[in-house]
Amino acid sequence: MSIADTPAAATRPVWFALDKLGVMIALIAAAGAALPFALFRANRIVLGETKGLFEALPGQFSALLTLTLLAGFGVALLRLAPLTKLIVGFSVLAVLFVLMGQSAAFLTPEGNTFARVSPGAGFWLLVFAFALLETDALTRLAFKPLTRVAILIAVAAAMALLLWSGGWDQLSMLKEYANRAPAFWSEARTHLVLAFGSVAIATLVGLPLGIVCYKVKPLRAGVLNVLNIVQTIPSIALFGLLIAPLAWIAANIPGASAIGISGIGTAPALVALFAYSLLPIVSNTVVGLQSVSPAAIDAARGMGMTDFQRLRAVELPLAFPVILTGIRIVLVQNIGLTTIAALIGGGGFGVFVFQGIGQTAMDLVLLGAVPTVALAFAAAVVLDALVEMTAREGKRS
């Protein structure tokens, strides 16, 4: 008789079984709990002094965090309902973020405006572990698209409330923000214009180009090969290659400089991002149109539709989820690539990233990196929901 057939195994509760992914999550979280929770520095550029969980928080808060983490470990390890994992995971993350602010207030000497407190490696590893738990729970629950967007909005609102309440004001990243608030919002607008503007222009050009490539097969290979070559050029190299021709245009074509074209700045950044955006949009347009069922096309022909009517009323609506997937890929890609545009004066959150690297001020790096990651993540969630909604609508029709 096997072990599984023994009475003990037969009567053991199902929830007591270990979750394989949960074991890995618990190990990551345990490593995070052992690493420094916070980093204290006398000023913004000197090497820091690491603080463990019990050094970084007052006694009652360190006890609260310990109990919360133990509960999180247990829920991660056991094969429980995904909804339970989701709720506990969010609760652990909420406690982590709130207590990180308390740690900064606790470690910063009263009246000291030079001291800096940053989240330590342990904090980031704990956030990663329980974010992984959340992702796994959300995948298993398979919420509808609008529910996922609602959860994203709720998380964003909770973070906004934490920042508005002043709970993180003593953290060094927020101190860097306080010193640069007008510049931060100016660069945020530039980042959005470059990322979303390049995708909008690429969509206006790439969608008709993809339709032409779909209709004219001899043209398809040549266009896609050229766009593939552009895609293989490293981003910083492409930004650099555009400086000379755009500078020549600004110097020799009347009115070019007046509308913002120059060798450095937003113009070469926008052109480079536009060039990187074309391949996914054009190729997904071709693939989406090719995937339309021949039966649907034949039915449209039987109804007497012209080629243009079939394209507008049948082929494009059915191909739209695939086309939207290409736009999603491009948008998330460009939100990240826009950071590099700061190297040629393009602006965006990359300004803080490269300033921080030059000054060895990691909190200034985070001031640019964290909003970029959050923006890319939010764009991915929203567009994923739109792709799923359009795909379902296409199946119904």
From TrEMBL:
It comes from the Bacteria. GO terms for biological process: glycine betaine transport; transmembrane transport. The chain crosses the membrane at residues 21-40, 60-80, 87-107, 113-133, 145-164, 192-214, 226-250, 256-279, 335-358, 364-387. GO terms for cellular component: plasma membrane. Keywords: Membrane, Transmembrane, Transmembrane helix, Transport. It holds the Pfam family BPD_transp_1. This is ABC transporter permease. It comes from Devosia litorisediminis.
